[in-house]
Write the structure tokens for this entry.
Amino acid sequence: MRKVAVPAEVVSIDRHFSRNLEELVERRVKFLTEYQNEAYARRYVSLVEKVKNKEKQCTTASALAEAVARYYAKLLAYKDEYEVARLHADATFKQKIDGMFEGDYKVVYHLAPPLLAKPDPLTGEPKKMRFGAWISPLFTVLKSLKGLRGTALDPFGYSEERKTERALIAEYEQTVERLLQGLKPQNHALAVEIASLPEEIRGFGHIKARNVAAAREKREALLARYAASPAPQRVAA
């Protein structure tokens, strides 16, 4: 009897709870280095460190730095074709499959490759196609091309979904800069709420697009509140 192994979605970033900010950042630096390169990870660390230093000036808490460390990494590590290839080309993936199934089994991949996948008549989203194990070597090739990610030579980077994902990264960086400019004890909790908004961006395709629109609308409303937050009161001498 042959069993079919269909891989579930691979979690991008280790979901084990971090004991502190340093451990949280360390895990994501390792992941982002593998995801893209060291420069990409340094970009991440630079913003987190900036937030941490500014936060220390107004509170002993580290909730804002932790939120930025968590959700900036989430936006930077969007699941694209290169990442899917990297995860499936990883030797540990095959080891995990071997540990889940016994005997004579075959692996089947359900993918929606650009230019090949036809749109679903109901949702308009590309329908997933079935591929056998023969496609595995292509994952290795595609994995090696991750340096093209986000460049003018990236053949996948011109889709609306990829453009949106890159835009979300830039928007988040700009939002964090705005938060730091006006950060004070009175609006610290609101700053954490704004920095955590990427948590609400989930799913793929039209579901993700809907969540992105809602998160952007909520961000603008919260930023308006943030800008209008009262200045700290001065104690009379």
Q: What stands out?
A: The chain has a mean pLDDT of 86. The first helix runs from residue 21 to 35.
